[in-house]
Amino acid sequence: MATQHSQKLARSMMAPSVIALLIWMAVPLAMTLYYSTLGYSLYNPISTPFVGIENYTYFLTDPTFIAALTNTMVLVVGVLVITIGGGILLALLLDQDIYGVNIVRLLVIAPFFVMPTVAALVWKNMMMNPVYGVIGQSMSAIGLAPIDWMTDVPLLSIILIVAWQWLPFATLILLTSLQSLSSDQKEAAEMDGAGALSIFWYITLPHMSRAITVVILIQTIFLLSIFAEILVTTNGGPGAQSTNITYLVYQQAISFGDIGAASAGGIVAVILANIVAIFLIKAIGKNLDA
Amino acid sequence: MGKIQLKSVTKAFGGVKVIPNLDLDIEDGEFVVFVGPSGCGKSTLLRLIAGLEDMTSGTILIDGKDATNLPPAQRRLAMVFQSYALYPHMSVRKNIAFPLMMAKMDKAEMNRRVENAAKILNLADYIDRRPGQLSGGQRQRVAIGRAIVREPAAFLFDEPLSNLDAALRVGMRLEISELHQRLKTTMIYVTHDQVEAMTMADKIVVLRAGNIEQVGSPLELYSRPRNTFVAGFIGSPKMNLMSGAHARQHDAATVGVRPEHMDLSTSDGLWRGEVKVAEHLGSDTFLHVDSKDHEEPLTVRANGEFQVKAGDVVYMTPQADKMHRFDDKGLAIG
């Protein structure tokens, strides 16, 4: 294992994949940085003059940017709250010894296998459509006015759809954590006079803290870059009510043909993601230490 | 107070009867040890007393009051688990204070009791550490600390020493005995180690397959085992049990002689045999002897050093007054 010879061998064997990964990461990043300094419009791709930081000032002072930033944060936090709250409840349920629990577990995990575009379209057309969607019809049936989800509460609709997709992931991670809690500890607490709620609060929840941290970290990474669900449901609208940073970058590039501004937006998104990551690691990363 | 009575208690898991029918009285302040081979139901019995399992039928009285349907927390019993079952994210102090916190005791009284427990068990040096930073023996002390702060009617120990190494086990054994002297609270202790049972107990309950084989003080069990099972289980090394011609000489189906109740000689004696293995401990010598007169090899113990080695010939004479006789059902005669 640790002889010099084997270390050298290991290094040379790993080199190709490390180099490939570096190129994979570095080249697009460098290209994006490069484009972000050019006045590069798809409507006039012949002339791409160097414009310095003009693209950045344009992107950052665009009023839509602030809206998109807020929407991104609301989306991430909203989905995290629903998936972790719901995930803990579902995990507690699925940890019980009930008849047919294996099938129920499989069903709970199912949404994770549906691809985002399909899930979003199904939700938009079959669940949330005010006229023939399931929710609209049930509300009409009991005499309530149906909600036009995509128009009236676009961001909430997207939060619900995304939360539905990520709930299984959270449930699964939290369930495995729950199953690793020794029954001795619960029994000891029971003998010490703790009721069901106290056992949950003082024993179960602290035991799950590491799993909750993992769920928050992994989900945040993916939730910052939600795109498909917005594209196929609200197109970021009405106005910019459901536009997040990722969708704004897409709009700059495809709708407005402004590659320069889109690249600048991309770099801003990378920096934001890193800020969030550092903040998260500082705030809750200590749970990951043994 | 901590008088516990079990009346026709039965327990079945599915169709399997783990405890067919059991009656037992445990007096206040007694140190009772449940001992038996693996799977004899001793841990199940303890969990029934604790309330962690439901009885299939029967009654349990604690201090004369029916506790059959009381939840564990209201039985005023404290349990020390084999795995210690400490709360890993809480400091030692919080672990010990947890039952008091659950009882909503006021801060001053809580601190007084925790400090007191820490003093009794020498926990003061690491009271602010977490269980993960402690050694096995220290964790065991914390688990005991968590039990004594509640000032329970009785302590339940579920094989508390089996995760410790041999040297530490002897030390903790002494500490638990001292604790019992000091607190004079009823203690029920489950173990499969008959040495622990012999050294600690006021009263030993020998269990096999959920049935009580014998109840008595350690010396009663040693000198008057009720049947061949108890005779073979209590005492180390095991009693030599012989059937056939030797037993018939004594009007019994089986006779037993403890290894320490045989006189050894290199020149003459009743039975001649060849030493298979000689274990020289310094304080004692254990010989495993093959004898033509017996089907099974015999174990003999000599006090101090007895100079023989494998292959040597020895002569053994059982001490007539220390013979145990059993009938064809395995029950002791006379």
From TrEMBL, chain A:
Q: Which GO terms describe its cellular component?
A: plasma membrane
Subcellular location(s): the record lists: Cell membrane
**How does this protein lie in the membrane?**
Multi-pass membrane protein
Q: Which UniProt keywords apply?
A: Cell membrane, Membrane, Transmembrane, Transmembrane helix, Transport
Q: Where is the ABC transmembrane type-1 domain?
A: 69-280
Q: Which Pfam families match?
A: BPD_transp_1
Which PANTHER family does the protein's record reference? BLR7065 PROTEIN, INTEGRAL MEMBRANE SUGAR TRANSPORT PROTEIN
Q: What family is this?
A: Belongs to the binding-protein-dependent transport system permease family.
Q: What is this protein called?
A: Sugar ABC transporter permease
TrEMBL record, chain B:
Which InterPro entries does the entry link to?
AAA+_ATPase, ABC_transporter-like_ATP-bd, ABC_transporter-like_CS, ABC_transpr_MalK-like, ABC_transpr_MalK/UgpC-like, Mo/tungstate-bd_C_term_dom, NA-bd_OB-fold, P-loop_NTPase
Segment forming the signal sequence:
none
Return the GO cellular component terms, semicolon-separated: ATP-binding cassette (ABC) transporter complex, substrate-binding subunit-containing; maltose transport complex
- Primary location recorded for the protein, binned into one broad class: membrane
Q: What keywords were assigned to this record? A: ATP-binding, Nucleotide-binding, Transport
Q: Which PROSITE patterns match?
A: ABC_TRANSPORTER_1, ABC_TRANSPORTER_2
Which GO-annotated molecular functions does the record name?
ABC-type maltose transporter activity; ATP binding; ATP hydrolysis activity
Query: Where is this protein localized, as stated in its record?
Result: Cell inner membrane
Q: Does the keyword ATP-binding apply?
A: yes
Domain named ABC transporter: residues:
4-234
- The reply to whether rRNA-binding figures as a keyword in the UniProt entry is no
**Transmembrane regions:** none
- In terms of domain of life, where is this protein from? Bacteria
What membrane topology does the UniProt entry give? Peripheral membrane protein
Q: Which family does it belong to?
A: Belongs to the ABC transporter superfamily.
- The protein depicted here goes by the name ABC transporter ATP-binding protein
Which species is this record about?
A: Fulvimarina endophytica
